[in-house]
Amino acid sequence: MKLLLMIFITHAIFIPCFSFDVPGNDLPLTLDYYKSTCPNVFDVIKKEMECIVKEDPRNAAIIIRLHFHDCFVQGCDGSVLLDETETLQGEKKASPNINSLKGYKIVDRIKNIIESECPGVVSCADLLTISARDATIMVGGPYWDVPVGRKDSKTASYELATTNLPTPEEGLVSIISKFYYQGLSVEDMVALVGAHTIGKAQCRNFRSRIYGDFRVTSALNPVSETYLASLRELCPERSGEGDSNVTAMDNVTPNLFDNSIYHTLLKGEGLLNSDQEMYTSMFGIQTRKIVSKYAEDPVAFFEQFAKSMVKMGNILNSKSLVDGEVRRNCRFVNT
């Protein structure tokens, strides 16, 4: 499958297209799956995502993260969207998701529009995958073609949501193993973490970092000290105080999808321990080189990010491909 990659570094600069091969040609996904059944689906989602991101640029990061959390549990099958019922334990209350994962109402909004045009045709899993691509574009990131044809699962897994998803305080070796488990390489991991360039984090997820080794990794840089002081003002050391306070993981260009997050790691100022580990961990020989490459070459980062998003989107739930469905409401299995 040849995919086209268009990269916009700013609104004023255009970098020519790349074409590359993405593995997984044997997967039951195609670019024209909805050609006859819902030909306008890509346009509908793009138009709605434009409005959603204009309303709040943070919505871009929210949708990309929701897609990530979906694909790492049972594959990209929309399981993360399911509400809890008497007969189904959902994933929303799992520790990596509760109090932090958002975007469900955005999915509902887009789904309602699509259902009015093409009832019972477009899966929630495909909707979320396409939306993540469009969200990336809306904040200056790369374009990639999205293969579609996923089915929605009839199940969710609280257990897998608890164990499969990387956590902010996790060590590098453990995180690499979680990506490998999904069939994603170290290069994929470092590229996908680049989405943090538009993300925000809650105090509870970076408290241990700013009261831990932040000064060590930033080498007592006076500028870093000022940044650290502002973080500590936002996030008190005592657990329970200001837990839900948020700040940007990229404090330079927080609403622009660029390679700034890697420059932050080079300076030792990564907000999350899991991010900074890629550059400063004693086990990070390979990741350190990749971080440096992406900091130096934004084109290489954009190209790999697009490849890795397609690769992650191709993580499928084999069970849902056989007996899955197209949910009418993304929150509930059809009855």
Secondary-structure blueprint of this entry?
Layout: E1 2-8, E2 14-21, H1 41-55, H2 58-71, H3 104-117, H4 124-138, H5 158-164, H6 172-181, H7 186-193, E3 200-202, H8 203-210, H9 214-217, H10 222-234, E4 246-248, H11 260-266, H12 273-280, H13 285-296, H14 298-313, H15 318-323
Antiparallel strand pairs: 1-2, 3-4
Helix pairs in contact: 1-3, 1-4, 2-4, 7-13, 7-14, 11-13, 13-14
What is the arithmetic mean of pLDDT?
92
Largest sheet: 2 strands, antiparallel
Percent range for β-strand residues: 5-15%
The percent range for helix content is: 40-55%
Number of helices: 15
Question: What is the structural class?
Answer: mainly alpha
Binding site for Ca(2+) 2: 197, 250, 253, 258
Binding site for heme b: 196
Disulfide bonds: 38-118, 71-76, 124-330, 203-235
Binding site for Ca(2+) 1: 70, 73, 75, 77, 79, 91
What does this entry look like structurally?
Helices cover 47% and strands 6% of the residues. Mean pLDDT is 92; it is low at 1-25. Helix 2 (58-71) packs antiparallel against helix 4 (124-138) and helix 7 (186-193) packs across helix 13 (285-296). It contains 15 helices and four strands. The chain has helices at 41-55, 58-71, 104-117, 124-138, 158-164, 172-181, 186-193, 203-210, 214-217, 222-234, 260-266, 273-280, 285-296, 298-313, 318-323; strands at residues 2-8, 14-21, 200-202, 246-248. The chain is mainly alpha-helical. It is globular. It has a two-stranded antiparallel ribbon with strand order 1-2. Belongs to the peroxidase family. Classical plant (class III) peroxidase subfamily. Disulfide bonds join 38-118, 71-76, 124-330, 203-235.
